Amino acid sequence: MVVIRFTRAGTKKKPFFHVVVADHTRCRDGKYLERLGYYNPKAKREERLKIDLESAKAWIAKGAQPSETVGQLLAAASKSK
Questions:
Q1: For 34-71, how does the pLDDT look when each residue is reduced to its tens digit (9 = 90+)?
Q2: Domains identified in the chain and CATH numbers
Q3: Maximum distance among all Cα pairs of the chain, rounded to whole angstroms
Q4: Mode of pairing for the β-strands spanning 14-23 and 34-39
Q5: If you write DSSP's letter for every residue of the chain in order, what string do you get?
Q6: For site-directed labelling of 42, which of 7, 15, 49, 65 has its Cα 20 to 30 A away?
Q7: Is 4:64 a contact under the CB 8 Å cutoff?
Q8: CB-CB contact of 21 with 74 (8 Å)
């Protein structure tokens, strides 16, 4: 099964997450199929979320399952556009 989820980047106490499409058996920060965007929860003035919605919709149409948090962020991003 293919999932859309976060991979963690950044440093200690300064998290930064990439939104990726990966096989569900891979480890969290392992290989992925495609990077769709990023989420920066600590951002104040910069963009907190940037996702390629067209690619995400295409992957979901192919059967990819977004994680719970990524699904909420995709819904929020869809409403704002």
A1: 999 999 999 887 789 999 999 999 999 999 999 999 99
A2: 2-80 (3.30.1320.10)
A3: 36
A4: antiparallel
A5: -EEEEEEEEEETTEEEEEEEEEETTS-TTS--SEEEEEE-TT-SSS-SEEE-HHHHHHHHHTT-EE-HHHHHHHHHHHHH-
A6: 65
A7: yes
A8: no
